[in-house]
Design a protein that fits this description.
The chain is an alpha/beta fold and 213 residues long. It has eight helices and six strands, in the order αβαββαβααβαβαα. The protein has a six-stranded mixed beta sheet, with helices on both faces. A hairpin with a 2-residue loop joins strand 2 and strand 3. The chain starts with a helix and ends with a helix. The relative contact order is 0.18.
Length: 213
């Protein structure tokens, strides 16, 4: 009987992108979420870096979340297609204290939608993170404006986050994973181990490249 229950357990490997302008706090959000750490002094990510978060989603579901921290891709041009490949979700991050980083959000979303899609052709689920809310005296004062912006640009939702004060980081991640799981039928990983192995191999290659930078 025990053997039967083990076979019913579903395991997923989800590749999730974390993208946005330089210095918006992408690395800080990942470090806070995966390791519960915060530092003021992360070096700028060059190319691609990633971290793994293992989530016991429920009694029958294990989710391995592979968070890809992507920066400086303007320098690589077409390389982004490789980084985005097989991603099933994304966070786009901006810094609430720097308006220009919000203005760049539409560009990032368009870039994302043009380079990766779900198996059924739909855009991958994306969540907008308004980061560094601890540095703003009042919260984003026009939430209706933000809600409308998300509808227009195709974001599922937006969250005010602070990696420093650990505000809404777990909540935003849980929301994204829920939506990724809802797209279960559009995901290749469960039916085909080949995709999973290939993704892992690509990951190892990317990690070794990131390490040598």
């Amino acid at each position: 009987m025990a053997g039967g229950s083990v076979s019913e357990c579903k395991e997923y490997l989800f590749k999730v992108l974390v993208i946005g302008e330089l210095g918006v706090g992408k690395t800080s959000i990942i470090k806070r979420y995966v390791h519960q750490l915060f530092s003021q002094h992360y070096r700028a990510t060059i190319g691609v870096d990633f971290a793994l978060k293992v989530i016991n989603w429920d009694s029958k579901t294990l989710v391995r979340l592979q968070l890809w921290d992507i920066a400086g891709q303007e320098r690589f041009g077409n390389m982004t297609r490789v980084y985005y490949k097989e991603a099933v979700g994304a966070f786009v991050v901006f810094d609430v204290t720097r308006g220009a980083t919000f203005e760049a959000v539409s560009k990032w979303k368009h870039d994302l939608d043009s380079k990766v899609k779900l198996a059924n052709g739909n855009p991958i689920p994306a969540v907008l993170l308004a980061n560094k809310c601890d540095q703003k005296k009042d919260s984003i004062n026009n939430s209706t404006l933000m809600d409308n912006f998300c509808k227009e640009t195709g974001f599922l939702a937006w969250f005010e986050t602070s990696a420093k004060d650990n505000i809404n980081v777990d909540e935003a991640a849980r929301f994204l994973v829920e939506n990724i799981l809802a797209n279960d039928k559009g995901l290749p990983y469960e039916e085909s181990n080949g995709d999973r192995i290939k993704l892992d191999q690509e990951t190892v290659a990317a990690e070794s490249k990131a390490g040598c930078c």
